[in-house]
Design a protein that fits this description.
The complex is a heterodimer of chains A (146) and B (486).
Chain A lengths: L4 E4 L5 E7 L2 H16 L7 E3 L2 E3 L5 E8 L3 H19 L1 E11 L3 E10 L9 E2 L7 E3 L2 E9 L1
Antiparallel strand pairs in A: 1-2, 2-10, 3-4, 5-7, 6-7, 8-10, 9-10
Helix pairs in contact in A: 1-2
Chain B lengths: L11 E4 L2 E4 L11 E4 L5 H4 L4 H8 L9 E11 L1 E10 L5 E2 L11 E10 H4 L3 H11 L14 H10 L1 H6 L5 H5 L17 H7 L12 E10 L2 H7 L5 E8 L2 H22 L11 E2 L3 H36 L5 E8 L1 E10 L2 E10 L2 E2 L18 E4 L7 E6 L1 H7 L2 E2 L9 H7 L2 H10 L3 E3 L3 H6 L8 H10 L3 E14 L2
Parallel strand pairs in B: 3-4, 18-19
Antiparallel strand pairs in B: 1-2, 2-3, 4-5, 5-13, 6-10, 7-9, 7-11, 8-9, 8-19, 12-13, 14-17, 15-16, 16-19
Helix pairs in contact in B: 4-11, 5-11, 8-10, 10-11
Chain lengths: 146, 486
């Protein structure tokens, strides 16, 4: 399996390292990684290699984000998804991009309805977040305030 | 290349409880960084990024005297938890939302019963269950009070005072609360609709993580006069409430970090960590964030006030209609305040960031309720569910050393995932119950994450605070029943 994300140790909060073959996949894996922390299992979907796989998505939300640069764009994208989760009680596991540049994205996030969570993420932080390409793979760390 | 590792040799000993990293350690430091700890405690933070984060804080424009770390310091994002930074408001000082945190005005409220542990104990089990049912806790749990948009604006402006108007709690609860539960300076237009929406059903909820409600017994008195002023006596039963501004506060911080981030090129600051994003206190962005943060703080005070009301209501139902629960005080440990302190023998208006740190004002100050004025402001230091918590009091030395600030808890020393690997929630529950501590928590994983082993020794942390004379010990409490979300 290609590495998508992994959890790193952090004293008080939660830190993920996210990978992607391109920026789209990096953003998608960051979204999936964030919701993996929040809801590691869903009763309506199956698990494959410790990841949730849903046969179909039952809800969609459109996002438009403009940010000063790519790192900020990722934080703002995830923050908006977290907001939708908080108010609509939906878990997002995929994203379709209409536009994705260094400073702008237009996308539809897709997922399923779900009440409750294992972990409450308060926020996505900029701390130690630097999107970079290492040995042909895009990656970044993300610290979530919990 | 900036140093990323700080060794013990980089620290200069000021005294047994205070260490300094000099301003020359890194060229971008504006002031020295100071850490309150013992030599032995260095081991807890040696391998994480706490001290690098503290050095980063020392680079904030307008910072005065020192970037300070309390003995419960641990790694955060931007600021370390346990970090304190004061910037000069009228001399280009900045306000940094990350220096206050996403859980705006997370804090602690303490109530004391007129009954002793012997009188409560026979009904303690029933009481714990009743409190667990009365106060919504746990991840994503909404509350029993649903606010309308107009009500939300009133809560943001008036905080706990609005709760009293609606019939929850008493005027006396307001008197014994930092800022009387209603900090001036909020502006509802600076709080986004998103933030308001997230808060609509969250008033009166504990939340998850390290937030809790605890029934405790006073098992030691250190300062009789202060204890008497606070209504505490050996054997007295107390209730401690720890929570904050919930999703509303998280969204306020997220929104303002985002908007300040977009303005950073205009400010021209070179910051070592983007999470320290900031704006001059007196800029439109700084003032807008401050007004929103005050609104979030007022929401948090309304939240703890409402929980306090339900605790009291439940208490009377279980223990008896004449059983009293009096609010001792309510303190914030994630907040930014405009305060005047003496710098180089002159009064300077400062924006004091307390991120996982508690205001601890000494006696005589106008901010302290008249009943406590001669002794000082009460300070609460929650330990863990298996150890002690402390009630301290602010003093004059703390005013000079730390802008009147003390620590806020034991401080984590282990990640949540490591704690879960080492501790089984079910076994921890059994162990605590075998020691007579009642646990009401519907998540064993959540319990394991907050295991006492994951925290520093609160006795040592508090001994550093009192040894350094940042505050003085008044009383120690031990847990009888712990109610928490998962």
């Amino acid at each position: 399996m290609t590495k998508d994300f992994e959890q790193l140790s952090h004293t008080a909060d939660v830190q993920l390292r996210v990978y992607g073959k391109d920026i789209e996949e990096l953003f998608r894996n960051a979204l999936r990684g964030m919701f993996y922390l929040v809801v590691p299992k869903l009763p309506t979907c199956k698990m494959v290699d410790d990841r949730i796989v849903c046969d179909e998505f039952t809800c969609e939300r459109d996002l438009k984000v403009t940010s000063p640069d790519r790192d900020a764009l990722l934080v703002d994208f995830l923050s908006d998804a977290l907001y939708f989760f908080a108010v609509h009680k939906e878990v997002y596991l995929d994203v379709m991009f209409k536009t994705l540049t260094d400073t702008k994205l237009e996308a539809t996030i897709r997922g399923v309805k779900h009440e409750g969570m294992q972990l409450e993420i308060k926020a996505v932080t900029y701390h130690d977040l630097h999107i970079k390409k290492i040995d042909g793979t895009w990656q970044t760390d993300i610290v979530f305030d919990i | 290349m900036q140093p990323t590792v700080i060794t013990f040799e980089d620290l200069i000993k000021i005294n047994d409880f205070l260490w300094e990293i000099s301003k020359s350690f890194r060229p971008d430091m504006r002031v020295p960084a100071r850490i309150y700890m013992t030599e032995k405690m260095f081991g807890d933070i040696r391998d994480d990024k706490s001290l690098v984060q503290l050095i980063n804080v020392s680079t904030l424009p307008g910072i005065q005297k020192f970037a300070l770390a309390m003995p419960d310091i641990h790694q955060g994002y931007g600021f370390p938890i346990g970090g304190v930074a004061a910037t000069a408001v009228h001399e280009g000082g900045v306000i940094s939302p990350g220096g206050i945190g996403y859980d705006i005005n997370c804090g602690v409220r303490l109530l004391v019963s007129d009954l002793t542990v012997g009188e409560i104990k026979p009904r303690l089990d029933t009481l714990a269950t009743a409190l667990f049912n009365a106060v919504p806790s746990g991840v994503g749990r909404g509350g029993k009070v649903k606010l309308s948009a107009a009500d939300m604006d009133k809560v943001l402006m008036q905080g706990a005072k609005r709760m009293v108007e609606l019939g929850y709690g008493t005027e006396e609860d307001l008197e014994y609360c930092e800022e009387s539960g209603c900090m001036p300076g909020a502006n509802v237009d600076d709080v986004s609709d998103k933030a308001k929406k997230r808060g609509l059903d969250q008033l009166g909820t504990l939340g998850s993580g390290n937030h809790f409600l605890e029934v405790q017994v006073v098992d030691e008195i250190y300062d009789k006069a202060a204890a008497q002023a606070f209504g505490l006596f050996k054997g007295a039963v107390t209730v401690m409430i720890h929570c904050g501004s919930r999703g509303l506060g998280h969204q306020i911080c997220t929104d303002h970090v985002r908007s300040m981030n977009a303005k950073m090129p205009d400010f021209g600051y070179q910051l070592p960590d983007r999470e320290l994003v900031c704006a001059p206190v007196l800029s439109p962005e700084g003032e807008s964030y401050f007004a929103a943060m005050v609104g979030g703080s007022n929401f948090a005070w309304a939240n703890r006030h409402l929980i306090g009301h339900w605790v009291r209501e439940t208490w009377k139902k279980v223990i008896g209609p004449d059983a009293e629960l009096t609010t001792v005080y309510d303190v914030s440990h994630n907040i930014g305040k405009r305060e005047t302190h003496m710098i180089d023998a002159r009064p300077v208006e400062l924006l004091v960031h307390r991120k996982g740190a508690t205001r601890a004002f000494g006696p005589g100050l106008p901010e302290i309720p008249s009943k406590y004025k001669s002794v000082g402001q009460p300070v609460f230091i929650p330990g863990t569910m298996g150890t002690s918590s402390y009630i301290l009091v602010g003093n004059n030395e703390g005013m000079e050393q730390s802008f009147g600030t003390s620590c806020h808890g034991a401080g984590r020393r282990m990640s949540r995932s490591k704690a879960k690997k080492l501790v089984r929630g079910s076994e921890l529950r059994k162990e605590l119950e075998s020691r007579g501590i009642i646990i009401r928590c519907d998540s064993s994983a959540g319990l394991a994450e907050e295991a006492p082993i994951a925290y520093k020794d609160v006795d040592i942390v508090v001994n550093v605070v009192t040894g350094a004379k940042l505050a003085d010990k008044v009383a120690r409490v031990k847990p009888l029943a712990v109610i928490k979300g998962g």
